[in-house]
Amino acid sequence: MLCQAFLQDIDVDIYMKQPELYEQGPQKIGMKRSKSDPCVYFNVDKNIYIAVWVDDLILLTSNKVERNKIKNKLMQYLEMKDLGKASRCVGLNITRDGDTIMIDQGKYIRDVLTKFGMSDCKPCKTPIEVGLKFTQSAEDEEMDYPYQQAIGCLLYIAQGTRPDISFAVNTLRFNKEPRAEHWTAVKRVMRYLQETKDMKLTYTKDGESNMRGFCDVDWASNNIDRKSRTGYVFISQGGAVSWCSRRQQTVALSTAEAEYMAMSSAAQEALWLRQLHVEFGQPLAGPLHIFSGNQSAIKLSTNYCYLPRSKHIDIRYHFLREHVNNLEIKFNYCRGDKMIADIFTKGTTEHKNLYCIAKMGLRSGVVVRNRPQP
After folding, report:
1. Coiled coil where (predicted)?
2. 238 and 177 fall within a common domain
C-alpha cells in the first residue's frame, strides 16, 4: 500500500513534461503494463503480477525470491507499507484454504444493512420477485428515500463478488424519480443479502480450467420501451470471473434477434478475456465456448447467406461471425433448465437461483475438501 497518494482534486492546473530518455517506472523494475487492463503489471518469465487500485497494490506470484526483489525495488522508489499476505483489499475479503481461494464482501454487506436500517430484517430466498415489472406510473407519489445511496452500495456488491444480484440491482435503475414500489424492491435485495451475506465467490485449483461462457436474453422484457435484457457470465476454475446484466440499446423484433445481440455482447467480453490470457502467457487452447439458449441465433452466427428476417440487423452485431469463423469463439446450445445466465435476465425461482449460484461458485464460508481416508 502506498503511504502517500493524491486522492483529491486540486483547484489549479498542473502541466508536466516527461524528460527525454526517462525510464518508465514499471520497466525499471522489470514489469510490463497490460494493454488489456492498464491497472495490471506483469512479468511472464518470472511469473509475477501486480494489480493496482489507486494506492492499493496486490502482488501475485509463486516465486518467493522474485517477490522479495520486486517488493524491495518498489520500496526504493516509493514510500510503501507491506501489509503481508492479502486478506482484505478495496472492501473485498480474501480467504485461502489449501488449493481454494475465496473472496467475499461480508463485512461491507453488514455495514450496508446497518446503514439502511436492515440489519434485523426478515431474510428472503431470492433477490427479486419472479415476473416483477415496473412502469412509469404517476399515481404513486414520489417519496424521499436514500435511493441513490442504496443503489450505489448494491452496485458495488454486485460488481465485486455477488453476480446473483446483478439483475435485480440493474432493474432498479429509477434514480431520477424513485417511488415506493422501487424502494420496496431495494429492501428485498437487502433481505436477500441478509440471508446470503456469508456467501463467498470460490475458485479451486481442481476446478474446470477451460473457461466457458453462458449468455441469455429476456426478449422485450421492458414494459416501458420494449427493449430486451442481455445477460452473460464467464466461469473459470469453478467460479465466475466476468458477468453482466444490461438492457439492450435497440428494440429486437424477435427472440432470435435479441439473442444474437446478446451473443455479440458476450463475444466482445470473450475476446477481451482471450487477450488477457495471451498477454499473461497462458493462451486458451482452441475456441472459447459460449452457451446460448437459442438455436436460431447460433445458426445465424455461422450463416453468411442473405436472410429476409435478419437483413435489418445492424452490422455491428455481425462482427462475431468473423471470430466464429477464425475459431476464436464457438457457440453451443444449452437447454433452458441448465442456462446459468438466466439469473442475469429475469427473476428466478428459489430452486433455479440455488442452481445458478452454485454453478457460479458462490458458496457458504465453509469449504470441505476431500481428504484421504486413514
Report:
1. none
2. no
Beta bridge partners of 96: 101
The verdict on residue 129 lying in a domain is: yes
Same domain, 1 and 21: yes
CA distance 86 to 59: 9
Residue 40 lies in a domain: yes
Last residue in a domain, options 84, 119, 140 = 84
| Grid cell digits, residue 125 | 430466498
pTM over 0.85: yes
Nearest of 162, 135, 361, 129 to residue 245 by alpha carbon = 162
Position 325 pLDDT exceeds 80: yes
Both 232 and 116 in one domain: the answer is no
Q: Which of 110-114, 242-246, 253-257 has the lowest mean pLDDT?
A: 253-257
Q: Would you give the distance in Å from CA 63 to the centre of its chain?
A: 29
Distance from the Cα of residue 349 to its chain's centroid: 22
167 and 221: one domain? no
- What is the torsion angle, in degrees rounded to the nearest 10, for the CA atoms of residue 255, residue 256, residue 261 and residue 266? 100
Q: In what order do the strands lie in the sheet with 32-33?
A: 32-33, 40-43, 48-53, 56-61
57 forms beta bridges with 52
Asked if residues 151 and 183 have their Cβ atoms less than 8 Å apart, the reply is no
Decide if 296 is inside a domain: yes
Q: Are 115 and 85 in contact (CB under 8 A)?
A: no
Q: Which range has the worst mean pLDDT, 15-19, 104-108, 237-241, 271-275?
A: 15-19
Length of the chain equals: 374
Backbone conformation region of residue 131, classed left if phi is above 0, alpha if psi is from -120 to 50, else beta: left
> Does one domain contain both 215 and 330?
yes
∠ CA 184-187-191, rounded to 5°: 135
Q: Over 90: is that where the pLDDT of 76 sits?
A: no
The parent domain of residue 174 ranges over: 104-196
Which cell numbers hold the place of 365? 464460508
Total of domains in the chain: 3
Residues 68-85, mean pLDDT to the nearest whole number: 86
Same domain for 314 and 226? yes
Q: Is residue 351 part of a domain?
A: no
Q: What is the band of 365 on the pLDDT scale with cuts at 50, 70, 90?
A: low
